[in-house]
Amino acid sequence: MSTLILNWSLVVAQVLLALAMACAAFRMIAGPRAQDRVLGLDTLYVNAMLLILTVGIRSGSTLYFEAALVIAVLGFIATAALAKFLMRGEVIE
Amino acid sequence: MTPEADLPAAAALLTALLVVFGAGITFIGSLGLLRLRSFFERVHAPTLGTTLGTACILLGSMIFFSALQTRPVTHEILIAVFVTVTTPVTLMLLVRATSFRYRAASDLRNSQQPASPGDSGANSSKAGRRLS
């Protein structure tokens, strides 16, 4: 019984996170300015990391944890580099 | 697909509750990205997902794997610490870049308003519209 509840709640969580990713992707595609697109990309990275964590819980293997960690690191690097680009016009000067 | 068959019921229910709560909070935060008006309001919305949403899902994952392997599994703390440290840094960088862009655009508009319209004025007005 509790296993059934856990499975269904993981499905619900994955659907919610996919909808959240859709919101972030809409903001990234249709954002009126460049900073809105960068904010949408940052949110998309975080939501993808959480989605991979729920996939890892569902499959019961800790392999997905490393993927989530790599996505978190790449999201930080991407957003920091894009903010630097918006500020200065180039990333490395 | 059913590795959680021998999971204690309390751990399974707690994991289910935490994961659904965290995913719902993250969804509300991302919905704010759609509904709020200006950029400086919108930049607050996803932090709901990066703080409470991430904390709840990571706590659920820790409880699940600790119960599954019958030993404390705490490597999710790595992600929690990393996200907690980096989110304010990235969003402050982004907001500083945005306010710098707004200020540069308004400076450009103010500086070209009293000047007489010419070739360079037309050029910079185009640049100003692109920046603002």
Question: How are helices and strands ordered from N to C of chain B?
Answer: HHHHH
Report low-confidence residues of chain B grouped into runs of 5 or more: 118-132
How many beta-strand segments of chain B?
Answer: 0
What percent of the residues of chain B sit in helical stretches (DSSP H or I)?
Answer: over 70%
**Main sheet makeup of chain B:** none
Shape of chain A: elongated
Radius of gyration of chain A: 16 Å
Summarize the structure.
The complex is a heterodimer of chains A (93) and B (132). With 93 residues, chain A is an all-alpha fold.
Could you explain how this protein is built, in words?
The complex is a heterodimer of chains A (93) and B (132). Chain A is an all-alpha fold. In chain A, 87% of the residues lie in helices and 0% in strands. Chain A contains three helices and no strands. Chain A has helices at 2-30, 34-59, 63-88. The longest helix of chain A is centred in the N-terminal third of the chain and has 29 residues, at 2-30. Chain A is elongated, with a radius of gyration of 16 Å. Chain B is mainly alpha-helical and 132 residues long. In chain B, helix 1 runs antiparallel to helix 3. The longest helix of chain B has 37 residues, at 76-112. Chain B is elongated and about 75 Å long. Mean pLDDT of chain B is 82; it is low at 118-132. The chains are: A mainly alpha (93), B mainly alpha (132). At the A-B interface, helix 1, helix 2 and helix 3 of A face helix 1, helix 3 and helix 4 of B.
